[in-house]
Specification:
Number of domains: 3
Radius of gyration: 25 Å
Helix content: 55-70%
CATH topology of the largest domain: Rossmann fold
Number of strands: 7
Structural class: alpha/beta
CATH superfamily of the largest domain: P-loop containing nucleotide triphosphate hydrolases
CATH architecture of the largest domain: 3-Layer(aba) Sandwich
Shape: elongated
């Protein structure tokens, strides 16, 4: 089942006796578990019929003993097991599945790991309840995710603002949601979120960020690129090299990919590069500024400086010094 299907069922009071929520993306796992914890039972029912357990403190017998209880003055009891990935041999719950308690809603939050889909445990979960795998989003999926999340909240966002958020916040969905929620508190609904609104409410500079840096490099704007890296050097905590380098690496790889395209139409290029069509023009401009050989050299440089940023062969250099050196080499 998908995240949306599970939430729709829960909102319609359609409950299953067991939920195994697993995977590398904790956001969806927390959303489902939190909804069950908050809304399945009334406040009065929760006092006697809701338990929250932690995997590092319990074993299989503890879970089974809690799950086998009958609800008191309620239709269901809820047992939520957080950090279920810490439980030794969770497959031991197979015996419980054979004689499952239908008046219990057992929720297993198995974060940061995958359950082996070939096991009888996973297959038995699917027969008796809900198995959900929460997958990490790829970098090129984040912008659309932000757009859709804001749409549900009745907001729009400009392509530049969306790119700014995606580049700055990465692929951590909970971090993205936290920042967006802080932002929209101060903005009327149906507003179109712009870089200026983001700068005013989140503190991400609309002029001095990695998105603007890659644009300056793509256009070979030497003055602007140096202004941005000087800002980065003065604010190293907000702009660490280890966060900037992967974004620049992806940018230059996409320029090289764009050069190799036979069909450079906006629609096809956007699809292949995994970007909003609005930004195809940036890759087209950059493709005219760099040769294939230069792009290969830049990509090699980025790998070298990734190693240097980790202290190898350059233990005394600061992030700012390394970035200035790297940008000079890219532009020259």
């Amino acid at each position: 089942m998908t995240f949306e299907q599970i939430l729709a069922d829960l909102k319609n009071k359609i409950f299953r006796p067991i939920y195994l929520l697993s995977g590398e993306e904790p956001f969806y796992i927390d959303e489902i578990a939190d909804y069950i914890e908050k809304y399945t039972l009334t406040d009065d029912e929760k006092e006697f019929n809701q338990s929250v357990l932690y995997g590092k403190d319990i074993d299989i017998n503890t879970i089974v003993n809690n799950a086998k209880r009958f609800p008191m003055m309620a239709n269901y009891q809820v047992v939520i097991v957080k950090e279920a990935q810490e439980i030794d041999k969770i497959e031991g719950l197979n015996s419980y599945l054979e004689n499952i308690q239908n008046s219990t809603i057992l929720v297993l939050c198995y974060k940061y790991k995958k359950i082996d889909g070939r096991t009888s445990f996973k297959k038995n979960i699917e027969k008796k309840g809900v198995f959900f795998e929460s997958k990490k989003l790829y970098e090129n999926e984040i912008s659309n995710w932000i757009i859709n999340y804001l749409k549900k909240k009745e907001f729009q966002i400009t392509p530049s603002a969306c790119k700014l958020l995606a580049d700055f916040l990465g692929t951590d969905l909970q971090k993205i949601v936290n920042e967006i929620n802080k932002l929209i508190i101060n903005v009327p609904q149906n507003t179109s979120i712009t870089p200026e609104i983001i700068e005013d409410n989140i503190g991400i500079s609309k002029d001095f960020n990695v998105f603007e840096l890659q644009k300056a490099l793509g256009n070979k704007e030497i003055v602007k690129a140096n202004q941005i890296i000087n800002y980065f050097a003065a604010n190293p905590r907000e702009n660490p090299l280890v966060k900037i380098l992967p974004i620049l690496y992806s940018f230059f790889v996409k320029i090289l990919t764009y050069i190799e395209l036979t069909d450079k139409s906006q629609k096809n290029a956007a699809s292949v590069l995994g970007v909003n069509p609005f930004f195809v023009k940036d890759y087209d401009t950059a493709s005219r500024k760099f040769t294939r050989e230069q792009l290969h050299q830049i990509i090699s440089l980025l790998r070298i400086y990734d190693v240097k940023s980790k202290g190898v062969d350059n233990a005394s250099a600061t992030d700012g010094e390394l970035m200035k050196e790297l940008v000079y080499k890219i532009l020259h």
